[in-house]
Known about the structure:
Elements: H1 2-39, H2 43-47, H3 51-63, H4 67-83, H5 107-111, H6 116-122, H7 125-137, H8 144-149, H9 156-186, H10 193-206, H11 213-234, H12 240-252, H13 256-269, H14 275-287, H15 290-302, H16 309-318
Amino acid sequence: MTFANDAKIFGIVLIVNFLVAVLYFLIGIFVIVPFAGKEGEGEEKVCRDNRTAYGLKFVVMVLCPVVGPLFFLVSYLLYQTIFRFQVNLDDVIFGKDRVRTQQKADEDRERNIIPVEEAIAVSDKKSLRMAMMNIIKGETENSLASIALALDAEDSESAHYAASVLSSKLNEFRMNVQRMYRQLKEEDAGQTECEERLLDYMDEVLRQNVFTKLEQNRFVKMMDEAAESLYEKKASRMTEGQYENVCLRLLEIQDFENSEKWCQRLSEQYPEQLPAYTCRLKLYFTTKDRAAFFQTLDAMKKSDVVLNREALELVRIFS
C-alpha cells in the first residue's frame, strides 16, 4: 500500500513537472521571445531570438524533475535581486593609446644587424648594405648621423642609399622648420605651442650634427630665437630638458655668450636639477674657465641632486 502511494505521488510530481516545463517552454517561445524581438532591430533582434535556449531548458526540466525547474527559478530570482545592476564604466577608458601591442621579434633581421660604423671600418659591402637597408626600413630620424657616415663608403650602392635617405629627411626637416617658424611668427602673444614644438623637433636632428657648419649655425640661431620667444612669453613653460638642449646646441657652434645666458637661466629656474650643473661644467670646460669649472663641480658634489654616469665620471676624474 505504501509503495502504491509513493508511486502515485511520484507520478503526480512527474506530471506536474512536465506541465510546468511545457508551460515554461510555450510562454518562452510564444510570448517572451517575440516581445523581446520587437525591442531591437537587425542584429540585435536576431541575438534576442532564444527559442533554442528555451528548448534546451525544457529538456533539462523534463529529465531532471523538480531539481531542473527549481534551479532555473532560483537562478532567475538571484539575477533579478542580486546580480542585476548597472556597471559603472566612468573610470574605464577604451582607446588605442592604452593598448600595448606585442610583436614577435624578427630574429633573422636582428641577427644580421651590425653598426654602420663597423661595416664601414671593415669595408664589408654585404654587411654595410644590410645595415643600411635595416636603418631605412626603421625609424631614421635618430639615425641620421650613422647614415651620414655611409656617404664616404667605398661601396657606391650603400653611399647612394645613404644619400637618398639623408637628402629626403633633411629636406623634410627644412620644410617643417620653416612652416613651424612661420606659425611662431603668426601666433598670438599668449600662445607658446609653436615654440615648444619647434624646440623639441629641432633638437632631435640638430644634436646629430648632419648639416654643414653654416646651415647648422643658422638652425641653432632659429632654435635660440624660439627659446627666447618662449622665455619672454612664459618662462615657466620651458623644461630643464629644453634649457639643456639650447645650451648644448649653442655651445657646439661656439656661441659661448648665449650659451652662458641660457645656463644661468637654467640654474635660476631649476637650481636643483642635474642639467643646471652639467651644462655649466661643459661650458666652463670648453672655455677653459678653470675657477668657474671647479666652483660648479664642488657645488654639484655638495648638492642633493642625483648624479648620472657622466656626472659621476666628472667627479671621479677632477676630484
